[in-house]
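Hello,

Our lab assistant flagged a job as stuck in the queue for most of the afternoon. It eventually completed. Since we weren't sure the result was trustworthy after the delay, we are filing this so someone can double-check. Below is the sequence as submitted and the structure that was eventually returned. Let us know if re-running is recommended.
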Amino acid sequence: MEITTEMIKELREATKAGVLDCRKALEASNGDFQKAVDFLREKGMATAAKRAERQASNGIVELYSHGAGRVGVMVEVNCETDFVARSEQFRTFAHEIALQVAATSPRYIRAENIPAEVLEHEREIAMARGREEGKPEAILPKIAEGRLEKFKDEVVLLRQAYIRDAEKRIEQLLLETIAATGENIIIRRFARWELGEVSQ
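-- returned structure --
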């Protein structure tokens, strides 16, 4: 299939990828627009994984207040250079992460940040619930594992569904931003306060 300039332009507008990368993606996908987008995403994510080892000491502390000051969020997001830290794309990403934290109240950035005792406690709750529901003892560990994964999807920021696109996880949004900026980006830490909430 012939790859036209119009097809390249359309893909470039949708993905912000380079002209040659768009042409290559369209050629690899035989002109199929969605497959070309997936091709670029995969390529971007592979590139993002290579960047993960690079030092990220610049960045921004994004502050967000929601509901006339009822919820406040502070997020630190780091990148490699001051140039990217000042870019609109990076700042938009940091703001989106602050919105996500405000809306979904995650407790951890990554699954490996969850303390072992928290996981054990959740596993015990899942096992007890399974027994109450009359599930056979033999399948309780499997049920508990499934519920633990669901728990992680709820409390781990990178595993949460993005509030603007339920088909996308926050980790995918992060990888796409890394691919687009060409720099390693790290969500370093966050804090969320809600009016009247008692500190733990």
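-- support follow-up --
The delay was a queue issue, not a problem with the job. The result is valid. The domain at 115-154 is CATH 1.10.286.20 (GTP Cyclohydrolase I; Chain A, domain 1). The chain has three domains: 5-51, 58-108+159-194, 115-154.
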